[in-house]
């Protein structure tokens, strides 16, 4: 008996901050329809992961983010209709910022898009692990990237 091959998809997403808020989109299509998460999706052939993350933010929200780095790689399993693992997403997750006052407009596969204050995250039906990713992105962005930049600028 042969074991069915799982599909592997390279993908990128971006955790974008504006002040004390994070950019979230409500997914319009399965497998995460109705859940809130970060803009993201597949990486096109020949496309760099960071370029894919920027493209996905643009397509899903109309915004142009400033990406400051890739802070983690994740592997996400998607289940098929029979409950078996059908697709593995190898995800590059980027952190970035957006100019103050930018207003996202949902498009592409996003039903809604908005900046959500950290204190309101528990009011949203987030994809599995999203809140931990937000915390990790915040730590990466502000503790490692921006503070390192400030230290370099002080010399």
Automatic annotation (TrEMBL):
Its cofactor is Mg(2+). Keywords: Hydrolase. InterPro entries: Nudix_hydrolase, NUDIX_hydrolase-like_dom_sf, NUDIX_hydrolase_CS, NUDIX_hydrolase_dom. PROSITE patterns: NUDIX (PS51462), NUDIX_BOX (PS00893). The lineage of its organism: Bacteria, Pseudomonadati, Pseudomonadota, Alphaproteobacteria, Hyphomicrobiales. Belongs to the Nudix hydrolase family. Gene3D superfamilies: Nucleoside Triphosphate Pyrophosphohydrolase (3.90.79.10). This is Predicted ADP-ribose pyrophosphatase.
